[in-house]
Design goal:
The chain is mainly beta. The protein has one helix spanning 2-21; strands at 26-37, 46-58, 62-79, 85-102, 110-129, 139-159, 164-176, 188-200. It has an 8-stranded antiparallel barrel with strand order 1-2-3-4-5-6-7-8.
Length: 201
């Protein structure tokens, strides 16, 4: 019985020591995205960007990993000048990538990073098009388009605890637009600024 009683504090301190030494490999993040550069469609405002990262190689000065982000931009477009319109536009970004996160000597809480990946943009248009002032007939708009391109990511995070951090990111996207795309007709240089926070686990 005495041995069992001694086992509990030993086990507790062992688990506590292991937890303190854990190198958290996973992280989840939530960001507010802002579109800059060339306009995508009608330049819809950002709603949210969510991400997940996994770090699989941890060296003294750099950590390598892979991750994925998904962001949503949405707006209701209304115009009653000439050919009036009233439709919802939703642009969804899917961004898988590999990245390197650097450790700065003497500045352990600050972590710059660079990443390379591919961005898929899915644009959906739902609503009506037509001249509302001259004719009651309205053209039904229901279009979904997908394009993609290479994505370069630059980031900077700051630890506010062992698990929590705040961050800022910039994504440069060279979007290769399909020539038969009815809404976009040329390649575009898109940019995304993201500000948010993350949690390591």
């Amino acid at each position: 019985m005495k041995y069992k009683l001694l086992l509990f504090p030993v086990l507790f301190f062992s688990i506590n020591s292991i937890a303190q030494d854990l190198n958290y490999k996973w992280s989840a993040e939530a960001n507010y995205p802002i579109s800059i550069g060339d306009e995508l469609g009608n330049d819809t405002p950002g709603i949210i960007d969510l991400g997940l990262k996994y770090r699989f190689v941890n060296l003294d000065f750099v950590t390598f990993g892979a991750g994925i982000n998904a962001g949503i931009f949405h707006d209701n477009i209304q115009s009653y000048d000439g050919n009036g319109s009233d439709f919802d536009e939703t642009n969804t970004f899917i961004q898988p990538k590999v990245f390197a996160e650097f450790n700065i000597p003497g500045m352990d809480k600050l972590r710059p990073s660079i990443g390379l990946g591919y961005t898929i943009v899915r644009s959906k248009f739902d609503g009506t098009l037509g001249n509302f002032t001259e004719t009651p007939e309205e053209a039904i708009l229901s279009v979904t388009e997908s394009d993609g391109g290479i994505n370069l990511n630059l980031g900077l995070s700051y630890d506010i605890g062992k698990r929590f951090y705040i961050q800022a990111q910039y994504d440069y996207i060279r979007l290769n637009v399909r020539r038969d795309n009815s809404q976009l007709n040329k390649d575009q240089n898109l940019g995304l600024l993201k500000f948010g926070f993350g949690f390591r686990f």
